[in-house]
Design brief:
- The protein is of the alpha+beta class.
- The chain folds into three domains: about 180 residues, no CATH class; about 140 residues, no CATH class; about 160 residues, Reverse transcriptase/Diguanylate cyclase domain (Alpha-Beta Plaits, 2-Layer Sandwich), CATH 3.30.70.270.
- It is about 65% helix and about 10% strand.
- It is built from 17 helices and twelve strands.
- Strands 8-9-7-12 form a four-stranded antiparallel β-sheet, with helices on both faces.
- It is elongated.
- The relative contact order is 0.07.
């Protein structure tokens, strides 16, 4: 029989023992596998690579729809519009159907509801192509039957509200911790104000851009209702999407951004066409530019149905690592001000031109300005409160870093820093200072006999007596274990006498017994004194501390010798 080595010789093989050897842990996924798992397609979505291919195809489709607008005219332009609208809508519906087939439950529900709008767009594109590109109609006008298309925005609104989201974003409005009732109330007010800012801003945009002209167009009956309902329903969809992005956490944030962008493109084109037709019959050849959003919107919205959730990642900046979550927080903070900026431009530009603000435009502007002012006042109050809290936290952290958590005395870092400053002042202008080192005798026996909790209780009691034995302006510190120290600046005219007197008071303060866990314990202290003055200067902090340390050990040795003499004394008397 042969052995592989001394460690195995004479031992049973592991398999023969009565214990099963624990299985080796399964190897974890590699970085590449983890990365691929992060971007694996979820229900209703495609892979990251497939998504970028679809996005590239969408970009080519949009480019093909825009380029010919520069050189096609007349009948050719009308036919090209029809073909482009049908192609873009068919592509969007195909993507939507694909995502519906691959999804289940709530993920399928919101896709079905949003797909109703895409299907309506396809039907409208076919109707437009047949009516204008084939039948030869030449003008656009609003009709009562156009109200059928309003079903799609209503279903889309329900679909947006059905998109799965996480809990309310705690960062929105600088939300406070759950224990802070005032902070929660302020956060609720901030959320309400931001929501109102978005709603009022979007309505002001719709009013200035479209609705005002519709009310002044002279339309009556169903055409008037349709002309108002179209832009209002589109604005409602965009508002809900913005609110979801701002105050909720969609499970797939990238999808929500694409859906919002698609709705925005579609809303701009639809509102522009309503504005044109509300002014009277409009020649179809002049609508090509206004259909661009209707071509871009559906494919972008459909891409939002198939885009996979983005992988969690971070990027390096000059301020450290910034992740997607951090960027998302910034986006959510500034998102309510995006529609506000657009609304402000629509109001300020005419005012600069000399046009008077009046009617509903003026009222909405005043309401929006009031909301912004209140929001900014709350922001100032929040920032002030945050700065006060930050300073209090900094003070607390500084105190924790420079004080002993058990006794509340200064720690070694603070004590050494203060001694450095005192020594520097001594070297600069000869200011005297005294350092005392204090070590408890037989403290180890307390820990060994009564436990560490009793030792901690004793140390706290010693710290209290130590504070009472020194001057109020002196710095008392715990250096570690049972070692304490005192720094005395400006110790009167006789530093040596002041130091010795303080050492005597410390020893006397320790003389009465301590009550520890119901037992009386006698603990004495050995105190060493080091003085730096004109007669005994020091060159460095280390030299002064070394003097104090040597003096303390000398005092401890003297106490031990006295104790030994006290013990031997009865033996001498016995011999006599």
């Amino acid at each position: 029989m042969s052995h592989d080595g001394d460690l195995t010789a004479g031992r049973r093989p592991p398999a023969a023992s009565g214990h099963r050897r624990p299985a080796d842990p399964a190897p974890g996924p590699t970085e590449a596998e983890a990365a691929s798992a992060q971007v694996a397609p979820k229900a209703g979505t495609v892979s990251e690579r497939a998504y970028w291919r679809l996005a590239g195809g969408t970009a080519l489709l949009v480019l093909a729809a825009l380029v010919p607008l520069d050189f096609l005219t007349g009948r050719q332009l009308v036919v090209f519009q029809g073909v482009t609208l049908v192609a873009a809508s068919t592509f969007a519906v195909a993507l939507a159907v694909f995502s519906i087939v691959r999804s289940r439950g709530v993920e399928r529900r919101w896709r079905l509801l949003l797909s109703a709008g895409l299907l309506t767009t396809l039907i409208g594109a076919l109707y437009w192509s047949i009516g204008w590109a084939v039948a030869g109609r030449t003008s656009l006008r609003l009709r009562a039957e156009d109200a059928v298309y309003l079903v799609a925005p209503l279903l889309g609104l329900v679909g947006l509200l059905s998109i799965p989201t996480g809990p309310a974003d705690r960062s929105a409005g600088q939300r406070a911790p759950p224990s802070d009732d005032d902070g929660r109330r302020v956060a609720a007010v901030v959320v309400a104000l931001d929501s109102l800012m978005i709603v009022v801003s979007m309505f002001l945009i719709a009013w200035v851009a479209v609705l005002k002209h519709v009310t002044e167009s002279g339309l009556r009956g169903w055409p008037f209702v349709v002309a108002l309902a179209y832009p209002l329903s589109e604005v409602a969809l965009v508002v809900v999407a913005l609110l979801l992005l701002t105050f909720r956490r969609p499970r797939n944030g990238r999808a929500m951004w694409l859906i919002t962008a698609g709705l925005l493109f579609f809303s701009i084109s639809e509102s522009a066409l309503v504005y044109l037709t509300a002014r009277g019959p409009f020649h179809v050849e002049d609508t090509a530019l206004y259909w661009v959003g209707t071509v871009i919107g559906p494919p972008v919205l459909a891409l939002g149905m198939v885009i996979p959730p983005g992988p969690a990642s971070t990027r390096q900046t000059g301020f450290g690592r910034v992740g997607r979550e951090d960027l998302s927080l910034w986006a959510h903070a500034y998102l309510p001000y995006l529609p506000l900026g657009v609304a402000s431009l629509l109001v300020v530009v005419p005012a600069v031109r000399g046009e008077a603000l009046q009617g509903l435009t003026l009222q909405l502007s005043i309401a929006l300005a009031t909301l912004v002012a209140i929001r900014q006042l709350i922001t100032v109050a929040q920032n002030t409160r945050l700065m006060a809290s930050l300073r209090a936290t900094q003070r607390g952290l500084r105190y924790q870093a420079l004080h002993d958590p058990l006794t509340g005395l200064a720690n070694r870092a603070l004590f050494t820093s203060e001694v450095d400053q005192a020594v520097a002042a001594h070297q600069a202008d000869g200011r005297p200072l005294v350092v005392l080192f204090c070590d408890l005798d037989d403290f180890k026996t307390v820990n060994d006999t009564l436990g560490h909790n009793a030792g901690d209780e004793l140390l706290r009691a010693v710290a209290g007596r130590l504070r009472g034995a020194v001057r109020q302006e002196d710095l008392t510190a715990r250096l570690g274990g049972d070692e304490f120290a005192v720094l005395m600046r400006d110790p009167s005219d006789d530093p040596r006498a002041t130091g010795d007197g303080t050492a005597w008071r410390i020893r006397e303060a320790m003389r009465p017994g301590f009550e520890v866990h119901g037992r009386r314990r006698d603990v004495q202290a050995s105190v060493g004194v080091a003085v730096a003055d004109g007669g005994s200067p020091v060159a460095s902090t280390e030299e002064l501390l070394h003097r104090a340390d040597q003096a303390m050990y000398a005092a401890k040795n003297r106490r031990r010798r006295r104790t030994r003499r006290t013990v031997r004394e009865p033996r001498r008397s016995a011999r006599r």
